[in-house]
Amino acid sequence: MGNDSGVPAPGFRTQFDAELDQLRLQVDVMSIRVGEALSRMRTVLATGDQEVAALALAADDEIDAMLVSLTERCYDMLRRQSPVASDLRFIVSVLRLLEALERMGDLALRVVKHAPELPSGSELFETLDSMADIAQELFRTAVGAWSSQNFQLASTLVARNQDMEGHYTRLLEQILRLEGPGATQIAVSAVLMGKALDRIADHSVIVGERLQYLLTADPAYLASEVR
Q: Per-domain residue ranges for the chain?
C-alpha cells in the first residue's frame, strides 16, 4: 500500500521487484522452449525424423500453456500493483513478447507438419533450409537482446531480416517453375513453409523493436507491429 505521498512503501516495492524478476525468468524459460521448437523444426526439415516431429507436436502444448499462465500473471500484476510508467511498459511489452513467442512456436510446428511433402535435395529444399537457418539466427538474436536488454543488438534485426526477404522471393520464383506429378501439393507445402519461416523472422524483429520501445519509450519502435 502506498503512503500519503503516493510513493509505494519500501516493502511493497521490494515485493513487486521480486515479482518482476520472477516474470523475467519465466519469459526466459518460455524463450528457451520456443528455441527448442525451432531446433526441432530444423532437424525435421533436414532429416524428416518423425520421432522429433512427434516431440515437436507434444512440446507445443507446453508453450501454449506457458502463454496462458504468464498472460494471466501479467494481468494480475497490472490489477494489483498499479505500476509506474517504466514498469507498466515492461509488463505490457512482456504481453506482446509472449504473443510473439507463442506464434513463433506455432509457425515452427507448421514447418514440421509440411516438411515431409518437400523433396530432399531439391532447390526448394535448399532455399527453405537457408530460410530456416536465418529464422533461427534472428530468433536467437532477438531473445538474446531481450534477455540482456541490449539496445544495439536489437537494432540489427531489421537490416538482417532483409536477407530473409530475398530468400522468400527466390522461393516463390522456384515454386512457379514446378511441374509434373505432385507439383501442386509440393507448391502448397513450400508456400506455407516459406511464409511460416518469413513470419518467424518478422516476429523476431517485433521482439527487438518492442525492446527498443521498452528502453526508450519511443512509440516509433512499435511501427512493425501494425504493418
A: 10-226
Give the model confidence (pLDDT) of 189-214 as tens digits.
Answer: 999 999 999 999 999 999 999 999 99
| Contact of 34 with 139, CB cutoff 8 Å | yes
Q: Which CATH superfamily is domain 10-226 in?
A: Phosphate transport system protein phou homolog 2; domain 2 (1.20.58.220)
* Whole-structure pTM value: 0.90
